[in-house]
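Researcher: Good morning. I'm working through a list of sequences from a screen, and I'd like to move beyond sequence-only analysis. For each chain I'm collecting a predicted structure so we can compare shapes side by side. This is the next one on the list. No need for commentary yet; just the structure.
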Amino acid sequence: MTLIIGLTGSIASGKSTVSLMFHDLNVPVIDADKISREVVNPHEDAYNKIVDTFGNSILQDDKTIDRAKLGEIIFNDHVMREKLNNIVHPAVRERMLAKRDALVKAGVPTVVLDIPLLFESNLTHLVDKTLVISVTESVQLTRLMTRNGYNEQEARQRIQSQIPITEKVKMADAVIDNNGTKQETYEQLEQLLQQWRDLTTEN
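Model: Good morning. Structure tokens for this chain:
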């Protein structure tokens, strides 16, 4: 029986680092962000629907979507943002599930779905266990300012646009504390994976 883990966190919590650790442990990771970029490539259904909805003015010379232009359109327009989400999200879900089901069929023991908005988009029914990568807000703030060059106000705005990590922690089946070193995080992950695999084997 395959164990499906839903991996999530918040901005600058270190979810990508843990995602790479899963790779190191030979656990396949299906990344929602990567798929969301794939499904808007030219000739994809979602791409055609986006162009039909927003017009050719959002295209670059090579016919790929100009993300900055599209971002400007949806940034302050709730209706247009909703339209875009209604095109992209189902396409991403469909592709994620196809990849998940292929791995399950192949008998892979553990599969990770890396979904940044796992709780916000109510997608927990797609997985067996939810795993949240957690850091304190001060660590989150420092990392975000260092990584993206934001000032404190910009960093706080981005943090506050998501469900707080403390809330996600309450909803999760397990939490990895990523305030320390990479080695400490890796050890927590190894231990948790072993526990969950043992439980799956017992059942």
